[in-house]
Write a structure and sequence with these properties.
Elements lengths: L3 E8 L1 H4 L2 H12 L6 E12 L6 E10 L21 E5 L3 H12 L3 E5 L5 H14 L33 H10 L19 H14 L3 E3 L4 E7 L2 E7 L3 E4 L3 E3 L6 H9 L5 E2 L2 E10 H9 L16 E4 L2 E9 L3 E4 L9 E4 L8 E10 L1 H5 L10 H12 L10 E5 H6 L15 E3 L8 H17 L9 E6 L6 E2 L15 E3 L1 H4 L5 H18 L1
Helix pairs in contact: 3-14
This protein binds flavin-adenine dinucleotide.
Flavin-adenine dinucleotide (FAD) binds next to helix 3, strand 16, helix 13 and helix 14.
Length: 521
C-alpha cells in the first residue's frame, strides 16, 4: 500500500468544515482500508454547484501507517542588507514589495520609490474621494502603498498557473498574517479590511532588514548612457545614480509611459479590455447559483464567472466581487473609472463584476497606426473614461443603466440603489461607450442570461467605466534577461509593463525581475 494517497470527496456544505464528518466520509469511501489511516490533510476546497445540491469538493491527502507531517508554514528569512548593494524599485504595489522580499533573500538592499502615501494615510484620501469626489492624483485607489490591490477584494487567484510559484506567493501572504485557508480554498481572497494590515507588516519587514521605502516620492525621469541606465530622477529635482531599476509602477501611471517615450525608450500599444461594472443584489446571485440551497448558512456569497462570444469576440466577467462595493478608481479629476472590492466576510448586499470585451489590435488599427503611435490604446481608454465623467471635472458620479434598459438601448427612468458611493445617474451608456463595445455587451448580457437565468434583470445595473483591467501599453523586455532591449538595468515589471494581471501574477513577476536585477548588480 502506498504510504500517501490523494482522494476527492464531495461533501454537503455543513460537513465540509467538520473534521469528524470528513473522516467519516473517508471511511465511507475507503471501507476497511481506512483503518490504517493515521492522519489526513485537506489540500483544496472548491464549491461544486452544478448538480441539484450544492456540495464542496475536497482534495484530501491520506497518510497510512504514518502520522500526517506537521505543516511547515513558509518563512521569509530576515537578513540584514543595510550595507548590501542597492537595487531601486519604482512602485510599492505587490510587484514592488515582492521584488523587495526576493532582493533581501538574495542579499541585496531594496530601495523603493513610491509616489503615494502609506496605507493608513491613504485611507483619508479614499474617504475624500468617495464622499467629496476629490481625486488626489498621487493618492487614490490605484496609487499608494500596496498598489492598486490594497483596497480590493484581495482575490489571490490567477488564471495562469504557468506564471510561477503561486504557493510560494500565497505562503508569503500567510507569513504576513493572511489566513491559512488561502492555500486551501480554490478561490482564495483576503478582503479590504485585512489587506492594509498585511501590507503594513510587509513594510515593517523590509525596513527591519535594512531596506528603504520613500513615500511621496515620484520617479519622474531617468538617464541612460551607452545603452545602460545611469541615473533616476525623483520628484523632478533629485537625481541619483542608479544602474538598476525595477519599474513596477502599474497600469495607471500614464506619466511614466510619457517619460519613457520622451527619453526615446521604446514602448508599444497593447490590447486591453473595456466595459462596465455590473451590479446585482447578492441574494439574486445566490438564488441563481445555489438554487434551493441559496439560504444555506455554510455557503459563502455566490460567485460567478461568465464568458460569451459575440461575433467572434469575447465578452467576459472580470474581477467578480461577491458581497462587494463598486469603487471609484480614477487617478485624476475628470475621469470616471470603476472597479470593485469586498471585505473578508463579503457581507455587503451587492455582487459586482467587470463585464468587459477585448480591445484588440484589430480594433486599435481602426483608430490609427498602432506601430507608430504607442499611445493609441491609452488615448482610447482615456477618452472613454472622460466621457464617463458626466458632471464635470470635480464630480465622480458614474453614468448607469438598468441591465434590461441597457439591452433595450433606452435610458433608465430611475435606478436601483447602488453600492458606488459617489453616486450614479441614469444615462444612455451608448453615449459613453464606443459603439462596438456597447453592441457586444448588449448581446453578451442576453447570452449571460441563458447561462444564469435571471442575470438579466431590471434590479441589476451597468455602471461605466471598467477600463483599468490591464495595461494599454507594453514596455518591452528581453525574454531571458528581462532588461529593456534598449536599456540595460531597466526591468519593466508586472502589470504596468504588460506582464501581469492581478495581485498574485504581479507579485510573481516582481520576484522574477528581482532575480534578473541581482544578476546585473
Ligand atoms: C479596486 C481594485 C480592486 C482590485 N481587486 C483585485 C483582486 O481582488 N485581485 C487581484 O488579483 N487583483 C485585483 N486588482 C488588480 C490588482 O490590484 C493589480 O493587478 C495589481 O495591484 C498590480 O500590481 P503592480 O505591482 O504591477 O502594480 P500596482 O499595484 O498598480 O502598483 C504600482 C505602484 O506604483 C506606484 N507608482 C506609480 N507611478 C509611480 C512613479 N512615477 N513613481 C513612484 N511610484 C509610482 C503607484 O502608486 C502604485 O503603488 C484590483 C485593482 C483595483 C484598483
Amino acid at each position: 500500500m502506498e504510504p500517501v494517497q490523494e482522494i476527492e470527496l464531495l461533501l454537503l456544505p455543513e460537513k465540509a468544515f467538520d473534521e469528524a464528518a470528513v473522516l467519516s466520509a473517508i471511511h465511507q469511501k475507503l471501507g476497511k482500508k481506512a483503518l490504517d489511516i493515521k492522519g489526513f490533510n485537506i489540500r483544496k476546497r472548491s464549491i461544486d454547484a452544478r448538480g441539484g445540491k450544492v456540495k464542496f469538493n475536497l482534495r484530501v491527502v491520506l497518510f497510512f501507517n504514518q502520522v500526517a507531517p506537521a505543516e511547515v508554514p513558509f518563512e521569509l528569512i530576515h537578513k540584514n542588507v543595510q550595507h548590501a548593494p542597492e537595487v531601486f524599485i519604482a512602485g510599492a504595489g505587490p510587484a514592488g514589495y515582492f521584488a523587495a522580499f526576493r532582493l533581501i533573500e538574495k542579499g541585496f538592499r531594496p530601495v523603493i520609490i513610491e509616489r503615494g502615501k502609506t496605507v493608513r494615510e491613504r485611507r483619508r484620501d479614499l474617504a475624500n474621494l468617495t464622499k467629496n469626489h476629490i481625486v488626489n492624483p498621487e493618492s487614490n485607489y490605484c496609487f499608494g502603498e500596496g498598489g492598486a490591490g490594497t483596497y480590493s477584494d484581495g482575490k489571490l487567484y490567477t488564471r495562469s498557473d504557468k506564471r510561477g510559484d503561486i504557493q510560494r506567493a500565497l505562503g508569503i501572504f500567510r507569513f504576513f498574517g493572511a489566513d491559512e485557508d488561502i492555500q486551501i480554498n480554490a478561490r482564495p481572497h483576503i478582503g479590504t479590511n485585512k489587506l492594509p494590515g498585511i501590507i503594513e507588516k510587509m513594510r515593517e519587514f523590509i525596513l527591519s532588514c535594512g531596506g528603504e521605502i520613500r513615500f511621496n516620492t515620484k520617479l519622474t525621469d531617468l538617464k541612460t548612457g551607452f545603452g545602460k541606465l545611469t541615473d533616476i530622477c525623483l520628484n523632478g529635482n533629485e537625481w541619483i545614480p542608479a544602474s538598476n531599476l525595477i519599474l513596477a509602477t502599474g497600469h495607471s501611471a500614464e506619466d511614466v509611459y510619457y517619460m519613457l517615450h520622451h527619453r526615446n525608450i521604446r514602448i508599444e500599444a497593447k490590447p486591453f479590455a473595456l466595459g462596465v461594472r455590473a451590479e446585482h443584489p447578492q441574494e439574486l446571485i445566490n438564488r441563481i447559483q445555489y438554487k434551493a440551497d441559496f439560504q444555506n448558512e455554510y455557503l459563502p456569497p455566490a460567485y460567478y464567472s461568465l464568458v460569451a462570444q459575440v461575433g467572434g469576440k469575447g465578452v467576459y466577467s472580470f474581477c467578480m466581487c461577491p458581497g462587494g462595493i463598486i469603487a471609484p478608481c480614477s487617478t485624476e479629476p475628470g475621469l470616471v473609472v470603476t472597479n470593485g472590492w469586498s471585505p473578508s466576510k463579503r457581507n455587503n448586499p451587492f455582487a459586482n463584476s467587470g463585464i468587459v470585451t477585448e480591445i484588440g489590435y484589430e480594433e486599435l488599427a481602426t483608430l490609427g497606426d498602432v506601430e507608430k503611435d504607442p499611445f493609441i490604446a491609452l488615448k482610447f481608454r482615456r477618452k472613454v473614461e472622460e466621457a464617463s465623467c458626466i458632471n464635470g471635472q470635480n464630480d465622480q458620479t458614474a453614468p448607469a443603466q438598468r441591465l434590461t434598459d441597457f439591452v433595450k438601448g433606452k435610458k433608465s427612468a430611475d435606478l436601483p440603489v447602488c453600492s458606488y458611493t459617489p453616486g450614479t445617474e441614469p444615462y444612455d451608456l451608448k453615449e459613453v461607450l464606443p459603439g462596438f463595445v456597447f453592441d457586444r455587451l448588449q448581446k453578451a448580457f442576453v447570452e449571460f442570461d441563458k447561462k444564469m437565468k435571471g442575470y438579466l434583470t431590471a434590479e441589476a445595473l451597468a455602471v461605466s467605466t471598467e477600463s483599468r483591467t490591464s495595461s494599454a501599453i507594453r514596455i518591452p523586455r528581453d525574454k531571458v534577461s528581462l532588461h529593456h532591449p534598449e536599456v540595460m538595468g531597466l526591468f519593466p515589471c508586472a502589470e504596468g509593463a504588460g506582464y501581469a494581471g492581478g495581485i498574485i501574477s504581479a507579485a510573481i513577476d516582481g520576484e522574477k525581475c528581482a532575480d534578473a536585477a541581482c544578476i546585473n548588480t
